[in-house]
């Protein structure tokens, strides 16, 4: 915890600076004497309080990502919460740490379009079969896919991020 | 990892099950395996059954994903040599049952070896070798090959043209999440190979090294054992017992690393260590990207 140190600026510090006191020497002398007496009294009543630190504390950010609030159905932003219980399929697709569906599109060499499905657990080949089937219904084409069993990811040729996200959300992942 | 792959295919098992295997998975007939490759006694204790009568000492603190079940293990004690397990404990699957990513283990292990390395190999270049400023003989007329200095790399005693140059650092950092995943994979692999044991605490009755060795032998933990506790102060008895032992080592939980886990055959965690590891390793799964270094204050860290 950081302690608040309260520093009182006294006129004593400013006394040495020229040009700040523009009064005549006699008046400044009397003024200085009176003022130093006042500050001496003030300084004997220094209070140090850490109550105001709560205004700093509430600005310090947390490290943990909070759980999203409960929405029934689709949220106003378009975010679809995961189902209460995982769907009874041989595979499972976890949500990212920001509670989104881990489907990402990629564009390399200016013309190579890929869609990547990450964070797959379970039977990834069953997921690949279902994805191919679904995309065949959507596009009418047989799309090449690549399964990486080590990293448990699935790549599909083409940009199908939104379609796959909607499909997985409808399944309840 | 050869042990892992040969877990079922040890010579004894191969003799029993050779007939049921297809020709691709059976061992070749001219393969020689040492007879002590897999200690069959170690595999004698199966994981705790669902209906075990022992009490569940510890449940997972963190929330479990809905589709995963916690891993259950026995909780032993070091107090006496032939004591029964004290109870069961649940371990979080996202720390102790992750996918066995050998590539991540390899990456973290090589990083641990190399990031501290500074190689001091240094050779002198032709300009640094003493001498060789003057042209040894005239360009033309002497009948010998033309040379400009006696310290060029062509000459004996000359400089090295492309040698190692000075202290070189092999420092690099793997991303924090990769290192964390490496720890999780190492713990999960030890768990899966039954090399991970949970103990209630590291209190032993005598400061005798022989007692520890006999205990490890009787429980078939393995050749080398790594004992992990949360605090940096260990009980006196265990400190004295492990002082002169090369294969049994103590480490605090903050010092747990992939290299040590791979170097030692068995890893023994206390219940407090399990709680500490779960809390620290699972935090990385649900944290924001850091806005500023961790040395500056955050509201819920440490």
UniProtKB/TrEMBL annotation, chain A:
InterPro entries: Ribosomal_mL49. It is found in: Mitochondrion. Coiled coil: none annotated. Its main location: mitochondrion. Keywords: Mitochondrion, Ribonucleoprotein, Ribosomal protein. This is Large ribosomal subunit protein mL49. Gene3D superfamilies: SUI1-like domain (3.30.780.10). Pfam families: Img2. One of its GO terms (cellular component) is mitochondrial large ribosomal subunit. GO terms for biological process: translation. It comes from the Eukaryota. GO terms for molecular function: structural constituent of ribosome. Belongs to the mitochondrion-specific ribosomal protein mL49 family. PANTHER family: LARGE RIBOSOMAL SUBUNIT PROTEIN ML49, MITOCHONDRIAL 39S RIBOSOMAL PROTEIN L49.
TrEMBL record, chain B:
The keyword Cell division does not apply. Keywords: Mitochondrion, Ribonucleoprotein, Ribosomal protein. Residues 32-52, 125-163 are annotated as: Disordered. SUPFAM superfamilies: Ribosomal protein L4 (SSF52166). It holds the Pfam family Ribosomal_L4. One of its GO terms (molecular function) is structural constituent of ribosome. The keyword Heme does not apply. It is found in: Mitochondrion. One of its GO terms (cellular component) is mitochondrial inner membrane. GO terms for biological process: translation. Residues 39-48 have a biased composition (Basic and acidic residues). PANTHER family: 50S RIBOSOMAL PROTEIN L4, LARGE RIBOSOMAL SUBUNIT PROTEIN UL4M. Belongs to the universal ribosomal protein uL4 family. This is Large ribosomal subunit protein uL4m. It comes from Poecilia formosa.
């Amino acid at each position: 915890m950081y302690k608040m140190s309260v520093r009182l600026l006294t006129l004593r510090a400013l006394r040495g600076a020229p040009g700040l006191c523009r009064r005549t020497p006699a008046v400044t002398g009397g003024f200085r004497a009176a003022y130093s007496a006042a500050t001496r009294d003030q300084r004997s009543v220094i209070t140090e309080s850490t109550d105001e630190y709560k205004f700093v504390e509430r600005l310090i950010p947390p490290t943990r990502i909070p759980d999203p609030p409960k929405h029934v159905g689709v949220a106003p932003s378009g975010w679809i919460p995961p189902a209460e219980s995982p769907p009874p399929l041989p595979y499972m697709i976890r949500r990212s740490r920001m509670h989104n569906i881990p489907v990402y599109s990629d564009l390399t060499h200016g013309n190579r379009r890929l869609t990547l499905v990450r964070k797959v657990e379970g039977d990834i080949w069953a997921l690949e079969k279902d994805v191919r089937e679904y995309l065949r219904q959507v596009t009418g084409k047989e799309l090449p896919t690549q399964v990486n069993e080590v990293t448990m990811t699935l790549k599909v040729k083409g940009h199908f991020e939104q379609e796959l996200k909607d499909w997985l959300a409808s399944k309840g992942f | 990892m050869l042990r892992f792959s040969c877990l079922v295919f040890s010579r004894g098992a191969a003799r029993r099950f050779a007939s049921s295997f297809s020709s691709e998975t059976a061992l070749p007939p001219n393969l020689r395996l040492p007879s002590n490759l897999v200690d069959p006694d170690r595999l004698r204790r199966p994981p705790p059954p669902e209906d075990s009568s022992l009490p569940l000492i510890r449940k997972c603190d963190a929330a479990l994903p809905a589709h995963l079940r916690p891993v259950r293990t026995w909780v032993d004690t070091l107090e006496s040599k032939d004591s029964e397990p004290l109870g069961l404990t649940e371990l979080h699957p996202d720390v102790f049952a992750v996918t066995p990513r050998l590539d991540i283990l390899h990456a973290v292990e090589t990083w641990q070896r190399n990031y501290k390395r500074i190689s001091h190999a240094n050779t002198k270049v032709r300009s640094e070798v003493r001498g060789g400023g003057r042209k040894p003989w005239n360009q033309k007329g002497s009948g010998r090959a033309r040379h400009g200095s006696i310290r060029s790399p062509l000459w004996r005693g000359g400089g090295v043209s492309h040698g190692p140059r000075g202290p070189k650092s092999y420092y690099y950092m793997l991303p924090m999440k990769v290192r964390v995943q490496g720890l999780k994979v190492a713990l999960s692999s030890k768990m899966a190979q039954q090399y991970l044991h949970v103990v209630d605490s590291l209190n032993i009755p005598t400061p005798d090294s022989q007692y520890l060795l006999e205990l490890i032998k009787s429980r078939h933990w393995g050749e080398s054992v790594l004992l992990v506790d949360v605090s940096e102060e260990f009980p006196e008895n265990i400190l004295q017992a492990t002082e002169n032992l090369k294969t049994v080592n103590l480490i605090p939980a903050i010092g747990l690393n992939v290299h040590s886990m791979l170097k030692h055959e068995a890893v023994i965690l206390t219940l407090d260590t399990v709680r500490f590891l779960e809390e620290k390793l699972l935090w990385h799964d649900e944290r924001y990207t850091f806005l500023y270094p961790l040395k500056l204050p955050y509201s819920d860290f440490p």
